[in-house]
Each structure stands twice: as C-alpha cells, then as structure tokens.
Amino acid sequence: MTETALPLQPGVKTEEKTKAPSALVRVAQYSLVRLIALFATVVVGVYLTIMIANMGGYVDEMRKGFIREQVAIGVGLDPALKEMTSAERQNHIDKLISLQEKRMGLDQPFLIRSFRYLSDALTLNLGRADNMASDSGSRQVRLIILERLPPTLLLFATAQFSLFFLAIFAALALSRNYGSLLDRIIIALAPTSAAPSWFYGLFLILIFAAMLGLLPFGGLVDAPPPDSIIDYSLSVLKHLILPVSAIVVSAVFLSIYSWRTFFLIYSSEDYVEMARAKGLSSRAIERRYILRPTLPTIVTGFALSIITLWTGSIVLEAVFNWPGLGRLFYQATNIFETSVIVGSTVIYAYLLGITVFFLDIVYALIDPRVRVGGNQGGRV
Description:
single chain; mainly alpha; MetI-like fold; 15 helices
C-alpha cells in the first residue's frame, strides 16, 4: 500500500517555521542592540560635554590669547632679538604663535577640532593637562584621574553600601512592625533627608572635630602619613568616619521609609495572604513572596549605588578636603582645564554605560516580565 501524506491542519506549521531562535542567540541579539544604544548615548553625552567645556570654542580662543601673550613676553625678554626692527619682530612673533597653535591643534576650526577631541576621548586618549598635574608630577590626564579615583571609591563605596544594606534590613524590620513607635519615628525623620550630605558634614565637623576634638577635620590621612601599613589603615579609617556618617545620615531615613513602604505594598498582595493562610513562617514569606518579587527593584537600587561610586561629590569632598574625583572636577572647572573635565566625563560615561548594560542583562535573568528577542521567545 502506498502511504498518503496527511494534510496539514490549519494553524499547524512545519518544524522549520516554528523553530524559534535559541536562548543564546536571543541574548546575543539583545546584548548587541543594547550595546549599540548605550554607545550612541555615550557618544552624544561626551560630545555635548566637549561643546560645553569649551563654551563652543571660547576656551580655545582664550588659549590662543594666552599663547600670544606668552610669545610676546618671551620675544621681548630675548636680548638676541633687540636688533630687529618692529616689522621683523612682529613677523617673528607671528611665526612663533603659528607654530605653537599648530602644535596644540588650534590652527583648525573648532568644529573640526571638536570631532578630533571626541575621537580621542572615546579611545581614552585623554592627552595632557595644561595647568594641572598629579602628585607624581605627571600631566597625563589619565594618570591625574586614576590618582584621584581610589579615594573616591573608598569613601563612596563604604558610605553607599552601608546605606543600602542598612536601609534594606531596617525597612524589612519596620515592615514587620508596622505602626510601632520606631516606625512612626522613622516616618517623622524622613524629611531630614532633604538636606544634602555636606550640610550634615559641616555640623559633624563642628561637633566632633572643632568642639570635641575626637576626629580630624578632613583629608585622607594624617600628616605626615604613618609608616606602617596598620597605622596608615587606622588613620584612613579615622578620616572616613565623618564623611561616611554625613552621607549616611543625609539619606538613611528617607531610604528606610521608601523601602519600608515598598515592602508593605508587596506584603499586602493576595498571594502573600494565601501563604499566611497556609501556615508558612514569616521568614519564608519574606524570602519567597516579598523579597523575590522586589528583587528587580533591589538590584536597581544597588546598581544606582554603584553608579554613584564613580562620580564623587564636589561639595562634600571640598568640605572634607577629600582628594577624590569630585574635588578634582571642581578644581578643573575653576581653571578651565578642559582635558580633565572631558576625561572625567568620559570615564564616568563608560562606567555608567557598563553598569546599565549589566543591569539590563540581570533584569532579563531575574525578572520574568522582561522579554528578550521581541515576540519570538520568552525570557532567558
């Protein structure tokens, strides 16, 4: 007997048509699209920074004026040029100015230079600073920034991670004791977070440094620095207490209040009430039905804490004389050090883009509502 092929039923597709891309392919496509979008954002942000830092080319005009002034003074003080006529001297000055401007790339229109600055910045060719130097005497912008990065990471990693975990665990405790006296006190103190960290820093310096003399006014370490590693570490920890306390005090009550409200909203869901009716313990309910659904938001808060590590705080670091990136940015702004301003922005833009990229990947892994690859497939 000959076999007859059964007709395809309506709505039934062949295996080739129904075969969806693998999870690895979908993740790769999703990651590539996100990388391109984030890189485009970085490019736009860096270019805008270049335009703003140069004031549309005005800073370069100031540099040209400085070159003309320096060349004129140098020619006037050179005894070998005294015999020249006024026309010859002016011609010599113009040649020196032209050579100096060409060496610094100022002989081209600003629009062309801006794209060259953009290319150098994106490839981390940050160049040399005109008026700033590292503690080792180097004028390389990369070295100047890298020298200030560890103090900023130390201060803000300690403060932000302490603040984050303190707020999370305190909020969980308050959500278990809704309406208690401590809960009402935290709610009453939440508006105190409206004041910035440097505001509390001034009061902490006044009380613990000026009046009581228990802690140093500022800086990273005692002067002169201790010789032994243990003494040096203890000195740094002593100098960390006041700035870390200022950051934590300025945000802790509002953070606890926000997380506590968030946990209360999730604890009133129907599936939580069902879990309580089944007789599950409070710890199991918190772990399975409150913390797990809020995990994407917790990860977001943690990622935002990481982002703040790379920026520092201009005013806070100035108040505590902390040698970090925030204070460096403030100094560079005051003296129009464009290369350092752009370099700091580029480093921050790259780190921000990397953080957001990994945050998107983590979302796709932990949140079932996040779809990867459009309508073709589900979550990873």
